Amino acid sequence: MDAVGQCGDLVEVARRAGTRHGTVERRLDRLDRAVGLPLTLRSRHTARLTAAGTRMLIAGRRFFHQIDLAARTHIFGHGSEAVEAPEVLSIASTEPLLEEVVEDAAASLGLLLSIRHESPHQVAAQLAGYHVDAAYTWSLDSPRHSLERATRTYDVLDDPLWVILPRDHPLAGRDKVSLVDLREEAWVSETGPSSEILVARVFQAAGLPAPARLQVTGASVARGILRRGDAIGLGSPTHPAVLEPSLVRRSLVERPRRTTSLLVDPTIVPRALAGRLAALIADSHLRRFVEHHRDLLDERWWAQWYAEQTGHLARCAGSVPEADAPPGPAEVRKLDVEDLHLLQAVARHGSINRAATVLSISQSALTRRIHRLEQALGARLLLRSPRGTSLTGPTRQFLVQLTRYEAEFRDAAIAGRTGDRQLPHSHWPARHSAPVAAQLSG
């Protein structure tokens, strides 16, 4: 109906809806039957809204706007959490964020990134000094940040390290090399978030003394030194690839690794938005790893690591096809209201099993629909345990508001039909609003 009101051409309406012309006709007919009034007047190729259709569309837009506000208040943030997502996020990064991350954030999250590229210890200072609202950095241990400013940490990628050698190096012919054999080499290294030297810490973790010839510099200078072949260094899936015919990349026997993380101020960046941004960054790194280092996947260890990372990303961030990608905060009105009704059914009956029985659908199908809704909202809605399923506090509050707004929508649609053929209230699908509200408020 929204597309009909904007353009009126049924071919264009179908294109905007991502479906076929015949499907559009059937859905508009179904809507007319559900309401009991003609909401559109159609010819073979065009359609326009009737007076009743215009009133229904206005009521519907208000309903979805109210759902949006309820989701922002109860799902995307509460208490000291951010409710509104920033239009522009100021972020300090230890590495240049990939262009596809910036573009994907703008396209799918409606978020513009203003990026400052700093060394790891400067990134922490930028965040602590309120110069930025988020930071993308790394740590060799679990992230520990002694910042007075409140922050929340989102893991991006478990980042294994490899060694970069000149192609004519004596060890370049091996598939894997050991740090023990590289102690006498000239190394180049960057400084970490806590002023720790990356290469020195990697050797220390392996029980070895730091190399005697170790040059410490910034990441960009280190890349130049590696490209010239003046020293050897460490690379990883999150580092921009140093692609040079004179260099080779070899796995390390010790398998050193680090963790990359996104730190945000939770009063500025809503939890769901931060989680999806971290997932975008991780996905870009993994895609670039496959593009530039596919040969490493022939090694069993790297193949297993890649499978673990992509699996974790799919579980935590919801790796769905682009056509089904969850909408950003500004697009919450694309939520499937029927999925919200299924969530109401779970709340009403107390478990997915009982709700599935009453709804006459399979438990697995209901679970998938609820999971899709969680992905779309970017938040966990149900708490699952061996004792059963319960709703989170924010979910309960959200459903109370949903029940209220649905009742307002029905009342507004019926009351606005002055002069039109009336429908009995029983014509509208029963949603058991009162019992749900009573149960949730209790």
From TrEMBL:
<dbReference type="GO" id="GO:0003700">
    <property type="term" value="F:DNA-binding transcription factor activity"/>
</dbReference>
<keyword id="KW-0805">Transcription regulation</keyword>
<feature type="domain" description="HTH lysR-type">
    <location>
        <begin position="335"/>
        <end position="392"/>
    </location>
</feature>
<dbReference type="InterPro" id="IPR000847">
    <property type="entry name" value="LysR_HTH_N"/>
</dbReference>
<keyword id="KW-0804">Transcription</keyword>
<comment type="similarity">
    <text>Belongs to the LysR transcriptional regulatory family.</text>
</comment>
<dbReference type="InterPro" id="IPR036388">
    <property type="entry name" value="WH-like_DNA-bd_sf"/>
</dbReference>
<protein>
    <submittedName>
        <fullName>LysR family transcriptional regulator</fullName>
    </submittedName>
</protein>
<dbReference type="GO" id="GO:0032993">
    <property type="term" value="C:protein-DNA complex"/>
</dbReference>
<dbReference type="Pfam" id="PF00126">
    <property type="entry name" value="HTH_1"/>
</dbReference>
<dbReference type="Pfam" id="PF03466">
    <property type="entry name" value="LysR_substrate"/>
</dbReference>
<dbReference type="GO" id="GO:0003677">
    <property type="term" value="F:DNA binding"/>
</dbReference>
<feature type="region of interest" description="Disordered">
    <location>
        <begin position="418"/>
        <end position="442"/>
    </location>
</feature>
<keyword id="KW-0238">DNA-binding</keyword>
<dbReference type="InterPro" id="IPR005119">
    <property type="entry name" value="LysR_subst-bd"/>
</dbReference>
<dbReference type="InterPro" id="IPR036390">
    <property type="entry name" value="WH_DNA-bd_sf"/>
</dbReference>
